[in-house]
Amino acid sequence: MKNGLKFLGIIIVFTVLYSLSVFAGGQEEAKTAKASGTVTFMMWGGATEKQVVQGYLAPFLAKNPDIKVEISTPPNYGDVLQTMVAGGTPPDVCYLGFPEFVQYLKAGQLLDLEKYADKSTIFNKKDFSPAHLASFSDRKTGDLYSIPKDWSTYVVYYNDDMFRKAGLPSPLELYNKGEWTMDKFIEVAQKLTTDKTSGLLFNQGRWKTFVPYFAPNWIKGVDKLDVNTPQFISAVKFVDDLTTKYKINPSVDQFSDMSPADRFSQQKGAMYIIGRWMTMRYIKSDLPFKWNVVPMPKKNGKAHTWVDMVGYAVMKDAKNPDAAWKVIEYLTGPEGQAAVARSGHAIPIRLSIANSDIFLNSVRPGFNNEAFVAIKDAAPILVFNNFVKIFYDTMGKELNNVFTGRKTAESACAELQKKIDKLLKE
Amino acid sequence: MDSDVIAVPVGSGKTKMSLRRKSEIIWGFIFVGPVVLGILTFMAFPTFYGFYISMFKWSIIGKHPLFIGFGNYVKLINDPDFLKAFWNTTVYVAGIIFVCVPLSLLLAYLFNKKMPFGETLKVAYYLPVITMMVAVAMVWRWVLSTDYGILNYFLGFFGIKKIAWLSDPRWAMPGLIIMSIWKGVGFNMVLFIAGLKNIPEMYYEAADIDGASSSRKFFQITLPLLSPTTLFILLTTMMNSFQIFSQALILFSGASDNSTGAGPDNACNTIVLYLYNNAFKWSSAGYAASQAVILFLVLVILTVVQLKLQKRWVHYEV
Question: Do B281 and A393 touch (CB under 8 A)?
Fold first, then answer.
């Protein structure tokens, strides 16, 4: 009996001491959370891009010693972000592209940044493209729920050495003369296609690049896509014709063996249509040939390109929204954007910086940065970005049947329209 | 007299446990407690919660799930993509069971005999088992490459034209099965070897005395006495094969249709892969949960059927 009471007494004392320590620690933690301004920042890109962003933030952190930024770059970014949000522990700031931005916006997980933007002396809406801001705004209220961080347009990367060896003018020379048209583009690609090399490298999965050339009005409002039209079918056929009719582009099967990016770096292709993000990869790879970039060719006097964008979002349940806004405000402000321009990784989102020498003379002397901003009215297809990932995957799968010869463009587009209409009803 | 029971007056009808017995029981619970807690937390609770989620329309990141009862199950029955995934999974399971299991038995039978480099070959066959699936799938993307793959290279010696393993819907599933067999045959082989070593030699000696042929000994002695091991391998192989996911995802990721790892024309879309895409890519966690429930029920039914049928062909003792 005595031993039992003694044992019980020891348990009670330890429990009280433990509780006191937890309480005290909690108080200390509460005090610390208010004062530290730690911002959890989640991004993709791995260690390399993390280092780049840390570089961007260094001057900001030096000026704001009360704010700390903890950057994480999880490998399966999308899955990890979803899990953290579902588990109630979201990061304060994260990258969001499309269609993820729409998914999180519809789920009510994003913080309205409009009031922050209105009060800010650094954030200047006039220095942003209205289309870029609209992409990251609520479709009904127009409030900003994310700030675009940078953008990328598709251009034509070309192997200058291959053109010289074939005795052909380079795409940049043709562009400067005003002769860079779709017909010329196909003509030079055919001349550069041999048994071992392709005149063009274009991933059929990026078919949407060519749609505006044939069907600029395929999106009929916020909730309607028209894909079973002669114009859209022509666009799909054109992408397929690059392989089957003009014979300048490898097939889907051939790309499964080696990607377009690898083919270009190994000089198995003369031209490669892709976005800005490949620029620094090729610079760092120190490709053993001369290369440059040029805008997409014109058809009927007009060039089109695809625009990709990513934004900084603050989660609604962020622990430190005020400090998170300060970080975003800096990164999308003049200083932060100048750093983005100098690094060469992306096109600055601020128009004044994107059109300045800071960006246009970046990367290396002679590199044609102007190609990325040449198509002045290039804008993300806003309403397309409304649709969630299942639309992208459904469209990609159905159209892949055309590019692999399993279906005609007509039958695939008819089937695709039915699938899209069914998804829209759900 | 039993030390666990203390005698009490006649007519009371009660026996009293000793303090030692009570102590043993309490310590028993303390030792199994953490494991039971782990099973309840990480297996039982998620299973029941999965049933619960399957009754909602919920986007995993959404804050307001909508109760729809069995609506997800009704949608499943009418979903051609799910039905195709179910069929693909069944084909995959059949391919593994009817090819991998007999092949591993054959290898085990050969390696159970003394042969030159036998131990080295056993290790060679087992190495893929302990290699990470991610690494295996990435290497096999090259092995199955149409123009550069070594599989097509060797098939060329037999006059077989290049097969588009990764982009032709007719060959994508066979390619996936071949890769999975290469990865898994060693594991079953080791289990069969263990089973073969448990068969007493005296039966073979008696059969030799009676003049039985090798094939007779195999079918009349080896197979029946190996049946408990075979049952175990069939059950585990079936359960693992029905849950195929990472092999298909990695093998077919990066395809030109920006696909979800389902292969050309969904040729390798499996139940778990479709479930994963619904939950994490298409924000339909409730619908994904209903697929998980269906998979669970299918596995339970197949396991029960196998266990009932085992009475006819499994011999636990001679």
Answer: yes
